[in-house]
Amino acid sequence: MLTQEQHYMPRTGMVTLLTELQQRGYEVIGPGVQDGAIVFHPLTQVDSLPQGIEQTQQPGHYRLHQTESARYFSWANGPQALKPLTFAPRETLWRSEQNADGSLRFTETLADRSLTAVIGIRGCDLAALALQEQHFAEDPYYRQRRANLLLIAVDCSHPADTCFCASTGDGPGADRGYDIALTELDDGYLVRANSEPGKAVLAALPLEAASQKHLEQADDQHRHARQQQRQLPRFDPERLIHQGQSAVWEAVADRCLSCGNCTSVCPSCFCFSEQEVPELDGQTSSHQRQWDSCFSEGHSYIHGHRFRPDTRGRYRQWLTHKFGSWVEQYGRSGCTGCGRCISWCPVGIDPLEILEQLGQEGTDE
Amino acid sequence: MNNPALPTNALILNRIQETEDIFTLQLRLTDPRQHWRLEIQPGQFNMLYRFGVGEIPISFKAISQDEAGEPVLEHTIRSVGRVSRALADLKPGSHIGLRGPFGQGWPLRRAEHQDLCVVTGGLGCAPAVSIIEHAFANRDRYGHIHIIQGVKHSADLLWRSRYEFWAQQPDTTVMMAADVAAPGWPWYSGRVTELIKRLPLKPERTLVCCCGPEPMMQASAEQLIRQQVPPDAIWLSMERNMQCASGHCGHCQFGADFICRDGPVMPYPRLRDRLGLEGI
Description:
The complex is a heterodimer.
Chain A: E1 7-10, H1 13-23, E2 27-34, E3 37-42, E4 53-58, E5 61-66, H2 83-86, E6 90-98, E7 104-108, E8 116-121, H3 123-135, H4 140-147, E9 149-154, H5 165-168, E10 180-184, E11 188-193, H6 196-202, E12 208-209, H7 212-227, H8 247-255, H9 261-265, E13 272-278, E14 284-291, E15 301-302, E16 305-306, H10 311-330, H11 340-343, H12 351-359
Parallel strand pairs in A: 2-8, 8-9, 9-10
Antiparallel strand pairs in A: 1-11, 1-12, 2-3, 4-5, 6-7, 6-14, 10-11, 13-14, 15-16
Chain B: E1 8-17, E2 22-29, E3 45-50, E4 54-65, E5 71-78, H1 82-88, E6 95-102, H2 108-111, E7 115-121, H3 126-137, E8 145-153, H4 160-167, E9 172-180, E10 188-189, H5 192-198, E11 206-211, H6 214-226, E12 234-237, E13 253-254, E14 257-258, H7 259-262, E15 265-267, H8 268-271
Helix pairs in contact in B: 5-6
């Protein structure tokens, strides 16, 4: 499976890794615990990594608990994906200014971004990043943010009960799209690099040859992580859009709050709305974009009416896009099996159940 | 700066009130370096921006010339929402922003040496008017021109004098239908599809441009197919919520297509199995 050379690094090497990144001018982002959840935030010392933290996740349920383990990465993903670092939740696209004669002057807001290294990315989120890169390939704002990222993945060893990345082919190990990847073991890490910047950082780390024992331990752990997972049910992506009359949509709409949590935590959802934010001086104005959701009231607005006025239509749009029309758009499903939409749904709707039911039904008429 | 993601300044030369809520803006792009934007094709659209309020997608109607021979860009707008109402308030001499052109226009090259059949429904169908104007400006490139326009009420008809002018041109058929016709309406009362049945079409050499509400476009396309017009010779102009105009913001998705980028003009076979599906 892995083509890169594997090295062994003792657990204390994490300090060297962090220092090396800082000395190379990277702002380092890593996992930590905040408000009872794993979040990605600025990481200045290894002590603030979530050591021994594990979690339980169920539909509508997410809880952390402390264990005696010395591991830093024994959790599955929290609510936050890599997405906010590349596709900003809110950003200014351009500014306009009114000249004395009333004419308008438009200025760019593209700014140089600082070098950023992210530690602790999972396979599902690397796969979602690749999906977003397909979608935002021509978007200058996205590209600007993406260009300065160094990605340090950690193979997922403790998937949650909501995870199904093995069945989407995106995890639990990281096998593409990273600069450096780690497999966390009981006493240290297996380390591999996948890019020139990644190899340069590796050269400064206290690495040893990986022993047979370490490699076997990693294989066992990986196999175990795969077995812990749920499976994507059988359904036909091309049929989803033609199953609009199914009673499944009514049933899910009865429960769905149309809150958009699923789209916020989804690492691949890309919708944004654009809005104007005029300054109080009346002479300047910012044109901004902000994450939007197909569950929002205005998403389907055209000249005076909404063609998806109810939750039924909105849930259907979300699910048929993610698992159906995404395949036509980008050659694969828009789901990477992270399970966030299941855990963070306030009423615990499980899209895999919906897909299973649809898979057993026919199309309209 | 030539970044197409940034709007450019446009001066309102003239404002024409077409009906109670429809108006046309005649615009000049004040920065000559931005005149590449005037390469806009019938069926494409621009994002028009009112300072401090926001942007809306508006299809291109025509490029005309002022007395000095300078190009004038025309957009016809119906004031229904926040931004269109704010644009409606502007007077000649005011400035707006403009981004574009965006999207796929009518298949002009493919239509050459063919008969053109333009079927429209509803008020102010600017995308269709743009291709009719283009065809008359390049008359020798096209065969017979069929123009069918349907309106709900006879009083809704826009640009009546243009239709009357076209009706007098050689090799041209103009037919109008009003669901509800006031006394004195010289044309048909009823549906557009009834008029299509009467058209002396040569289906093997006709290209259809259709623009209007989706049920009307679908019914028209199916009627044309019954009259032996090949489905891939029928092109529709679609409409969805367009905010970024570059296929990124996700609002205009119609199944797998991003209408702002893959449309708004699209061949009927690509749309056929999705048109009429509720909520798509």
